[in-house]
């Protein structure tokens, strides 16, 4: 028991050393309630064309299928809230994409965390996951006491709001576990529901992913965006932050200290005309480490044209 407590303290200390902002730990077990909610969400087609979300369902709900013998799920939060803002005449880009791709930044930190655990605690089997694998990160963050799930579907941390990346490290090491936050601190507030430009946020914390601006501008690979959505994107070219920007809890957001998330100057300053005249070669060079790669050059050009109508 003493070892468990000491190892837990060690790991949380390593997490702080690596620059993560918060850490919580939950017992590795099947996510029964979350599995049912996910199944219902998928059956209603609320994921749109994101077919990949239907894959590996059993892995999403059971961490022992990802790491044999898994005992603990370590969840970490990394703040990405930028100090700088975009120029007012630039097409809007979600704040998470201002700097380098978070996958690259966080994977290195998770690898370093596992190395530290093996060096100081002993041989531990584990795998780190950042968004791109079948892991329900928000569920684990909630279970480990890092926040509650808001009406906009985001994890909200009481100290600093929701501008965080969530990552997990699943290990076969028994640790002390944090208690989930029992209360939902959104209360009767519905600012995110009322402010969503496309009505993608519905009652009961159900998000219609197929109507979200982020879905249209990043995930949807069609050559053209739907005509009936013209005028609804509020100048968002890549992603959307409306539901976070209006959330009262984000008044506590603090600028990130992660150097990797320093904004790319072009993202802050490019005008619509400059985005239109950008060549594919220049796009690949300027944004080679940026999340904008996900939409590709053709997707960005499509989005810019759509905003112009």
UniProtKB/TrEMBL annotation:
The residues that cross the membrane are: none
Note describing how the cofactor binds: Binds 2 [4Fe-4S] clusters per monomer.
Q: Which GO terms describe its cellular component?
A: cytoplasm
Which of this chain's residues are annotated to bind tRNA? 221
Under which main EC class is this enzyme filed?
oxidoreductase
Q: Where in the cell is it found?
A: Cytoplasm
What does this gene product do? Catalyzes the conversion of epoxyqueuosine (oQ) to queuosine (Q), which is a hypermodified base found in the wobble positions of tRNA(Asp), tRNA(Asn), tRNA(His) and tRNA(Tyr).
Question: Which Pfam family would be a valid example here?
Answer: Fer4_16
UniProt cross-references to SUPFAM superfamilies, sorted A to Z: 4Fe-4S ferredoxins
Q: Which Gene Ontology molecular function entries are recorded, alphabetically? A: 4 iron, 4 sulfur cluster binding; cobalamin binding; epoxyqueuosine reductase activity; metal ion binding
Pathway(s) served: tRNA modification; tRNA-queuosine biosynthesis
Catalytic activity reads: epoxyqueuosine(34) in tRNA + AH2 = queuosine(34) in tRNA + A + H2O
Q: Which NCBIfam families match?
A: tRNA epoxyqueuosine(34) reductase QueG
* Record-annotated 4Fe-4S ferredoxin-type domain positions: 177-206
> This protein's superkingdom?
Bacteria
Q: Which InterPro entries match?
A: 4Fe4S_Fe-S-bd, 4Fe4S_Fe_S_CS, QueG, QueG_DUF1730
Please tell me the species this chain comes from: Niastella yeongjuensis
Q: Which residues bind [4Fe-4S] cluster 1?
A: 186, 189, 192, 247
Q: What is its EC number?
A: 1.17.99.6
Q: Which residues bind [4Fe-4S] cluster 2?
A: 196, 212, 240, 243
Query: Does the keyword 4Fe-4S feature in the UniProt annotation?
Result: yes
Q: Which GO terms describe its biological process?
A: tRNA queuosine(34) biosynthetic process
User: What quaternary structure, including any partners, is listed in this protein's UniProt entry?
Assistant: Monomer.
Record family assignment: Belongs to the QueG family.
Active site, renumbered: 131 (proton donor)
Residues recorded as binding cob(II)alamin, renumbered to this chain, are 60, 131, 152, 155, 166, 214, 240-241
Q: What is the name of this protein? A: Epoxyqueuosine reductase
